[in-house]
């Protein structure tokens, strides 16, 4: 593709379960401080041995990395997709460390102008890794600049204007692109096909999350026993990022309420109940969504737009943040007519399930 910086563009409660914690919802404003940055840096694993979970993917990557070293060629371009918080960025850092090269990290929304992506590509050194987060949000110009860079390691530039325009082909160092996305289906076919390895990251089991929690606790000098780790893991929505956040909050609770005692199952339960996180990992909004469908719309089906207005939440927030976990747990079902609460949702909330509710799904 021929590009020029002259063409830069900007892109632009009723029936609550006994298991559910009884608390009032709170709006908290999160602020990043130096401790949070240090915390994230400290707990990120550096090697495959430290990286817990994703066993099948790790085995594949170990073979691929070893083969690239023996051939003395850069690693194939990789695409990781899956829900947020499963370790895509962390895994990219592990790969760079295992190969022994530097990694440059950026995100697709920050690559608005042609010179943004060109500047990064020209600054790379041979064998280095370029990691682009949320790669499905790349604008068309940046994406097309990547095509020849990924395949043949060159980019096309133009100089001059009008009839005096000249083109030149500029080589870029051989590099490995690692893309991460939560929406693999949003990638264009030409871009997706240029990745040599495409892999979906899986949700974590409770045992895997317990290992993540114990590892993080050890690094941060937090005392926790096996049962306490499993209690936190069971409420972490199968996601390491959430598990690491909850271990911090549980440690705060243990420090203030129990003078820093070891986090047991009971202490973890009390800490997470105080955060309105129940035994399945559902928070206040998750339960409000289910109760709305059951109590206000007789279990559904009800359209997501209606739920959005009733909850005061954006449609995309419901679809991207809340629904995936509720669907995974089998608490709601998507039908042609809208969302419907399942029998498991009634049971979890302690609401009596009748056959009339169940029959509604027969005609969806």
From TrEMBL:
Region (Large ATPase domain (RuvB-L)): 24-204
UniProt xrefs under Gene3D superfamilies: 1.10.8.60, P-loop containing nucleotide triphosphate hydrolases, Winged helix-like DNA-binding domain superfamily/Winged helix DNA-binding domain
Annotated region described as Head domain (RuvB-H), given as residue ranges: 279-364
Single Gene Ontology MF annotation: ATP binding
Gene Ontology cellular component terms for the protein in this record: cytoplasm; Holliday junction resolvase complex
Subunit structure, interactors included: Homohexamer. Forms an RuvA(8)-RuvB(12)-Holliday junction (HJ) complex. HJ DNA is sandwiched between 2 RuvA tetramers; dsDNA enters through RuvA and exits via RuvB. An RuvB hexamer assembles on each DNA strand where it exits the tetramer. Each RuvB hexamer is contacted by two RuvA subunits (via domain III) on 2 adjacent RuvB subunits; this complex drives branch migration. In the full resolvosome a probable DNA-RuvA(4)-RuvB(12)-RuvC(2) complex forms which resolves the HJ.
Identification of the protein by name: Holliday junction branch migration complex subunit RuvB
Lineage of the organism: Bacteria, Candidatus Galligastranaerophilus
């Amino acid at each position: 593709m021929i590009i020029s910086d002259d063409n830069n563009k900007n892109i632009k409660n009723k029936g609550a379960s006994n298991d559910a914690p009884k608390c009032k919802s709170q709006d908290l404003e999160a602020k990043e401080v130096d401790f949070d940055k240090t915390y994230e840096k400290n707990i990120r694993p550096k090697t495959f041995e430290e990286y817990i979970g994703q066993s099948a993917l790790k085995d594949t990557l170990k073979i691929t990395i070893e083969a690239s070293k023996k051939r003395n060629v850069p690693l194939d371009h990789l695409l990781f997709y899956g829900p947020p918080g499963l370790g895509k960025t962390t895994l990219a850092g592990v790969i760079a460390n295992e190969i022994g090269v530097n990694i440059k990290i950026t995100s697709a929304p920050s690559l608005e102008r042609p010179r943004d992506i060109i500047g990064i590509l020209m600054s790379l050194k041979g064998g280095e890794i370029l990691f682009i987060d949320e790669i499905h949000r790349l604008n068309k110009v940046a994406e097309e600049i990547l095509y020849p860079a990924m395949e043949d390691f060159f980019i096309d530039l133009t100089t001059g204007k009008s009839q005096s325009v000249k083109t030149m082909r500029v080589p870029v160092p051989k590099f490995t692109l690692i893309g991460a996305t939560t929406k693999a289906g949003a990638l264009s076919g030409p871009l997706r096909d240029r990745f040599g390895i495409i892999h979906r990251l899986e949700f974590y089991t409770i045992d895997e999350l317990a290992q993540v929690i114990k590892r993080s606790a050890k690094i941060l000098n937090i005392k926790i026993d096996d049962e306490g780790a499993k209690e936190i893991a069971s409420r972490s929505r199968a996601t390491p990022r959430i598990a690491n956040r909850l271990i911090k909050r549980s440690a705060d609770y243990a420090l203030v309420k129990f003078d820093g005692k070891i986090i047991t199952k009971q202490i973890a339960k009390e800490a997470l109940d105080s955060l309105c996180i129940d035994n399945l990992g559902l928070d206040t909004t998750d339960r409000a969504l289910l109760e709305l469908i059951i109590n206000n719309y007789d279990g559904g089906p009800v359209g997501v737009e209606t739920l959005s207005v009733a909850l005061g939440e954006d449609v995309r927030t419901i679809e991207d943040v809340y629904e995936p976990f509720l669907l995974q747990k089998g608490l709601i079902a998507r039908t042609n007519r809208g969302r419907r609460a399942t029998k498991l949702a009634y049971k979890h909330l302690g609401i009596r399930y009748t056959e009339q509710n169940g029959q509604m799904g027969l005609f969806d």
